[in-house]
Amino acid sequence: MASHYLYLSSNPIRFTPVNQHTNVFFDEANGEVFTLDRKGGEEDDSALVVVKSLHGKNEVQFRLEHGSQIKSIKFSPNRNILSVLRSSKMVTFINCRNFNFEDIEYRQTCKSQRAEITSFHWTSNTEVVFITNQSVEYYQVNPDRNVVKLLKLYSINVNWAIFQPRFSTLVVSSSASSTLLQPYMFQNGQVNKLPKFEVAKSLTSEVLQERDVVVTVIYGQLYILVLRSVPRSQNVTLSAPSLGSVAGDIVMYALYKDSPARVAAILSVNIPGSFATHIVDNLILVHHLNAKVSLLFDIFHSINDPEQIPTIFPILAPLPIETTRITFLDAPSWVTFQPNIVIDAKLGCIWQMYVKLNVLETMITDKNQLLDILLLRKKGKEPIIDLCKQALTPGEQNTLQQNPLRGIFDKSSQRRVKIDQSELYSKVLTSFLDNKKANRKFLISVLIDYIRSLNFCRLSVQYCICELLINLIVENKSFYQLHQLLQYRILTDSKPLACLVLSLEKAYPPAFQLAMDMLKRIPSCNEDVVETLLSKKHILAALQYTESIGRGDSVSARKYLELAQNSGDKKLLFTG
Q: Locate the Mic1 domain: which residues (predicted)?
């Protein structure tokens, strides 16, 4: 069995490590690392700035004056404006369209003379928010006029603040214990000040630390995750001597624009110590820094009742991260960022954290739970296909309580994985046709269950699925079952399917009428109905059908008279 379900990217982004001449800054919102190299000597305080991106943007190099004074540096999201914090009083802006840096710099100081800027964040390409120790200040930057305009100012005592870029949300801690949180949402020059709320205190600390709070998005919902110390339960997640009576859990607060925040769930970590948190593909990863293991949580199937606060337990037992020769979990120089970033500034590496979905197949014994997890993952397709193959393999068919093909579409309203019917046909179903040990009746029931699910989700059944089912039914001589499927229109009407059913007339005579009924339901198949009837020498029926669809005037009388004469039936020839 595999010993890891998390791993770091094998090719980290490399940058110049921190040293006496080099500073490193990371912009979490844009996923960019800035290295400032000052090797010009005592008389030259300029710095060579190298910018590398996690998202495939081009590497950028340029030189800045007063490099030793820089406390923070960021691009606007479109990289048209460079913003630099050199002092605690002002931010400097430099226009740099297409990385052509202008000589003119323009600046904006914080409004209060006694305030100090602790951080700043871009909320759009032309809007930025300053966080000082006394206020939250929202500005609009006009690069064409080199002007910065104040849009909104909130006076508030700031202990610390965390910015979430996806929803442009700022969460400010303002009380003496830091447990009173004030969220702000920024959009199109407007600020939505959400209701403030108090979070639960920890047993071991009276003051809530910034490192114990994460603002993130999971399944499209904005959450604040707060780590706290609580009395340890008897069901300890990690075995260890002398754990003591205190453990940790994570309280998840859901944030809403039009209503107060509420506790949505509690993640039961049940281990004391220091933690770091990542979000990978909507899975919550909790890294225990002392024990050097990680926990994996999925909240999707637990948070569905606003009146309940579920306690959610890890999917699997704690395991270490799979590392390479240059990585190790307890590195003292590691710093984690959202959503899945690990930086070692001394080593000069940036990694991204990932989940090994393929090993979950061997770790999760409940295959229905495994299917639920995989259906919500971006890269869950291949593991799901493997799971379907396993479920249909002789001797393994009882490992799932339900048909996995049905599950794929029964949960379609929330699924992220999209597996086309043709993919299931080519990668899963056809592989069992040559297997003599495969139970044909079982496969028929699986296909019927799958088709019912497709119909429930209002998805047309593709011909390849219909053809496979009909061939299996004919092979099994279950013609009554075939009749029911066609009569009650379980299979999607199509000309190829009607032709296939028509070909079964010798083995099952009622198939002719079933095929004709299907052709008549397809507007574009009127000519096919007529020609099929004529090929069976049902001349009068063909003529009557032509009249019924309003095409009697276009009928070639000579054609029908010749067919009637050639039939040898004089009574038919003179039928009016």
A: 411-574
Q: By three-state DSSP, how is residue 38 classified?
A: coil
- Asked whether the bond before 272 is cis by omega within 30 degrees of 0, the reply is no
What pLDDT does 463 receive? 94
In a domain? residue 146: no
- Two structure tokens written together for 56: 């495939």
Residue 98 domain-assigned (yes or no): no
Burial 151-170 (b: 16+ CB within 10 A, else e): ebbbebebbbbbbbbebbbb
Does 279 map to a domain? no
Residues with Cβ < 8 Å from 393, sequence gap 6 or more? Answer: 432
| Dihedrals phi, psi of 17, to nearest 5 degrees | -65, 160
pLDDT for the residue 559: 59
Q: How far apart are CA 183 and CA 170, in angstroms?
A: 6
150 pLDDT above the threshold of 50: yes
pLDDT for 238:
47
DSSP H or E stretch at residue 540: helix 539-548
Q: Is residue 493 part of a domain?
A: no
- The most confident of the ranges 34-43, 69-78, 194-203 is 69-78
- pLDDT-derived band at 235 (thresholds 50, 70, 90) equals very low
How many structural domains compose the chain? 1
If residue 386 lies in a helix (H) or strand (E), which one and from where to where? helix 381-392
In this predicted structure, the answer to whether residue 66 has a pLDDT above a threshold of 90 is no
pLDDT at 392: 78
Q: Chain centroid to CA 311: how far?
A: 23
The answer to whether 6 and 319 have CB atoms below 8 angstroms apart is yes
Domain span including residue 546:
522-576
DSSP 458-469: T-PPPHHHHHHH
**pLDDT value for 435:** 72
